[in-house]
Amino acid sequence: MPAATRPYLFMLSALVSCTHGVAHAQSIDYGALEQLFQEPVTASATGSPQRVADVPANMEIVTAEDIRRSGAYDLPGVLRHVAGVDFQQWTSNQAEISVRGYDQPLSQRVLVLINGRQVYADDDSFTPWSALPVELGDIRQIEIVRGPGSALFGFDAVGGVINIITYDPLYDNVDTASVSAGSQQLAQGSATATLPLGKAGGLRVSGGARSDQDFPNAAATASSDLTGRINQRRDANLDATLRLNDSASLRVEASTSSVRENLFTSGYQYDFDHFDTQSVKGQLSADGVYGLLQLTAYTNHLDQNSTVGVLGIPVHLSDRISVVQAEDVFKLGASNTFRAAVEYRRESTNTSPITGADVFYSVISASGMWSWQLSPALALTDALRVDQLILGRDGYTPPDYPFANSDWDRNLHQPSYNSGLVWKLGDNDTVRLLAARGSLLPNLVELGSLLAHEPGLGISGTPTLAPTVVDNYEIDWDRELPQLRARLRTAVFYQFTDDMTAVTGAVLPSPTGVYVTPQNIGDSHALGTTFTLTGTLPEHWRWGANLRLERLRDSFSAAAATNADLADPRHATPEILANVNLGWSAGRWESDVYALYQSRTLGLSSNGFTAATQITVPAFTSVDARVAWQLNKHLGLALSGQNLLHAQQLQTSGEPVQRRWLATITAGW
Amino acid sequence: MRLAPRALLAAGVLMALPASAQQSDTTLLVAARALSFLQHAPQGEVVVGIVYQPRNVQSALEAQQLYGAMEHGFHAGTLVLRPQLVDLDQLTAGGIGLYFLTAGLGRPAAALVPLSRSHQIPCVTTDIAQVTDGNCAMGVRAQPRVEILVNRTAASATGMAFSEAFRVMITEM
Q: A497: distance to nearest CA of chain B, Å?
């Protein structure tokens, strides 16, 4: 066959595949759209499918290849080198992720989802990363939005959104298994298998288990709980999609996970926690004259048992979330795309360690999005959401409690918005002007589910907390550099955080002593800029470099300014955060090196409930690397390492992290 | 009318436009993928009508390359794609399931419109001007980034309906 005809043959092959009667209509076929547009596709910016270069948001997508070549064995390790992402490794099993600063133990400001299902635990405003029921082999891409996304996702998406998109068993056939062994007694196994369900469906089953020994008790901090503790994690997932007809499909996902791990708490103390999660989700998608319609319902259950707990009393929280959503994305005329959505959410958590009561809320939400293509080069997108929250409490109140159940009878009306102007200046330049507002809801622990009492001293949440509101304004400029086979992305952002909350600080008198409660402590401002360069070199090389410069300024209450309230984002956020990476692949070999630099920070530590000390974390550089060899079509070997420059390195105010080596055998079929 | 591709080669078109041939390869690959989002994609044996003008160098080159790719039939599962060269001056719709309108035809391409509409045959082209003029429903551009332009009137008239997930990602007019 003449060489000139081969590209046409390829084109015709694609045409053939499309005329098998494979309908892409009923749900988003990420793989087909990505293949068509030759760039990742996402719905995490506006709710409407978009090419990542077109979204009215500062977004980055981590692909399955990026995940594999990161050498990481868990999700935070994958996210560690993403531009603008803060990473704090508190234990070998607990790393906290934040976007644009404000990272802390049990980091609050990034809403994390799996296929749009919230896995962020808003009973205590954090993401239990190790308990997320997903295997790395399940993941098609991780979508990271920098800045608020509350107009789409609701409460808690204030610093950013991380939406983990798994393969759809209707379109993607993924069969892989791996076993890993490494230092600190690390052992991990993971498997993903996809099975056809007749001609109109698919089922993906996955699961994994991991155990390792935590960092040794080497720092002079309150880490005695760590000694000899073994972290354990396991999960199982089921994901099935059925094509109901040419225009509709039903996707059902179910998961369970169980984790036993050391945990550095928002009180800056080590604990040993058990997490058990279960979830079920159903999503009906249809594409027709009415638009792209989705009806979604899911329920999450999280059991959290803390060994040390509060005042030395173990805490057991059982949190249930039920969510029902309906949305429609449709295009009117040639230039206007709309999204309309309603949502109902109910969440309830018991009080603990004093039991006998529940704190709960219901949220009714309505949201809309309008994307207006003003010209081929200019698009304006506006999204608005209004949440009405109805808070409540029922059950037992201690005799000396300074609150009555009626104090929880509150309604909150919270608007949020995202607005973005995307202007394409020729073929190589894109400018974005973005403004957004998001709200961080006081979590149920802060609102009263944490309830402890010893003679003279009680600890409780409070129903009077105000939501934390974050406003973000930024200018982005992306420039393609075709001569260098590279892309430059820059952003300048300003964030204003109103009414930040600290986990402690307020003191309320009671007949037998005092109750310590959380409180709103004041405002914070962040000004920063990011530069990201990514590119490839002929044949075998890829590279990247990113730099974030950020400075915070706080206006906290007098007590909070002394760190007594265990809140000090200004000093805990590095002013300089930089990453570089270089990758090479040829034939059966792949190798990648990643380096991270973080400037000096000051972190907190606590030996008692309100006694905080500030610990200097010197500037540091850490290096991760991976080398992999594909033996044959089915088997591959990889050797990866994290924090390779030092046997131990202080990266937070907790335990020093350890160098870790990891060997992995991967099988695919 | 069917012409042997060798006759086109004899016209020296490959010598005339080697660079543009390379570019159109990628563009047409994108075009084919875009068709998978048609709500009623053709199935079974499909004859692809390659609309061209023999005396137009750009058009003839593209037609030759397409014909070569399908010359012996393109088999995949139960589907076989077969090419049929269609001279713009002697248009036919007999048995054709899809038109590829080659680039560079200019205003005379309007002659295809009544035929594709009356027989409900979708049309794809790399020549964006033909889309804006309404002579072909879908145009594609691959470089420097993939762009897909659909003329809604022309698409509707030829029975082309796309999924909503696809519509919100393309440019319509």
A: 34
* Chain B CA closest to residue A373: B171
- Going B4 to B6 to B10 to B16, the CA torsion angle's sign is positive
- pLDDT classification of A299: cutoffs 50, 70, 90: very high
* A610 in Cβ contact with A592 (< 8 Å): no
Rounded to an integer, the average pLDDT of A226-234 is: 79
Q: What is the mean pLDDT of chain A?
A: 91
Judged on CB neighbours under 10 Å (0-12, 13-18, 19+), A290 is: exposed
Kind plus residue range of the DSSP H or E element containing B19 = helix B18-34
In contact, A433 and A421? CB cutoff 8 Å: yes
Chain-chain contact of B172 with A19 (C-beta, under 8 angstroms): no
What's the rounded Cα separation, in Å, for the pair A612 and A500? 18
Across A147-162, b (16+ Cβ under 10 Å) vs e yields bbbbbbbbbbbbbbbb
Give me A395's structure tokens. Answer: 């059950």
Neighbouring CB atoms inside 10 A of A259's CB total 24
Pairing of strands A410-425, A378-395: antiparallel
For residue A249, the one-letter residue type is S
> Kindly report the CA angle at A558 between A554 and A559, in degrees rounded to 5?
105
pLDDT of the residue at A12:
41
What is the C-alpha to C-alpha distance for residues A446 and A505, in angstroms, rounded to an integer?
12
Å from B3 to nearest chain A CA?
Answer: 17
Cβ–Cβ contact A633 with B under 8 A: no
Nearest to A470 by CA among A150, A220, A105: A150
- A482: cis peptide before it, omega within 30°? no
Q: Is A406 exposed, middle or buried (0-12, 13-18, 19+ CB in 10 A)?
A: exposed
Phi and psi, residue A187, nearest 5°: -140, 130
> Quick count: other Cβ atoms within 10 Å of Cβ A140?
22
User: What 3-state class would DSSP assign to A213?
Assistant: strand
Return the H-helix or E-strand segment holding B16: helix B13-16
A450-454 and A457-460: which strand pairing?
Answer: antiparallel
Question: Cβ B165–A287 below 8 Å, yes or no?
Answer: yes
Instruction: Say whether B145 and A13 touch across the interface (CB within 8 A).
Output: no
* A429 shares contact with chain B (CB less than 8 Å): no
Pair A620, A650: CB distance under 8 Å: yes
Helices and strands in chain A: count of H runs, count of E runs: 7, 38
Task: Please say if the pLDDT value at position A13 is more than 60.
Answer: no
d(CA A385, CA A362): 16
Residues A359-374 have pLDDT tens digits of 999 999 999 999 999 9
**Predicted pLDDT at A17:** 37
Residue range A437-481, pLDDT digits in tens:
999 999 999 999 999 998 888 999 999 999 999 999 999 999 999
CA trace torsion A32, A36, A38, A44 (10° rounding): -50
What's the pLDDT band for B42 if we cut at 50, 70, 90? Answer: low
pLDDT of residue A221: 43
A400 pLDDT above the threshold of 90: no
Q: Could you tell me if B31 lies within 8 Å of chain A, comparing CB atoms? A: yes
ipTM field: 0.83
From the list B36, B69, B169, the residue facing A9 with the nearest CB is B69
Query: B74 and A25 in contact by Cβ < 8 A?
Result: no
Segment A583-586 long-range contacts (CB within 8 Å, at least 24 positions apart): A583/A69, A583/A541, A583/A542, A583/A543, A584/A540, A584/A541, A584/A542, A585/A540, A585/A542, A586/A539, A586/A540
User: Which residues of chain B are within 8 Å of residue A336 when distances are taken between CB atoms?
Assistant: none
CA distance B98 to B59: 17
**What percentage of chain A carries pLDDT values higher than 90?**
79
Query: Could you tell me if B65 lies within 8 Å of chain A, comparing CB atoms?
Result: yes
Confidence band of A27 (pLDDT split at 50, 70, 90) = low
* Interatomic CA distance for residues A409 and A616, integer angstroms: 43
Amino acid present at A310 = V
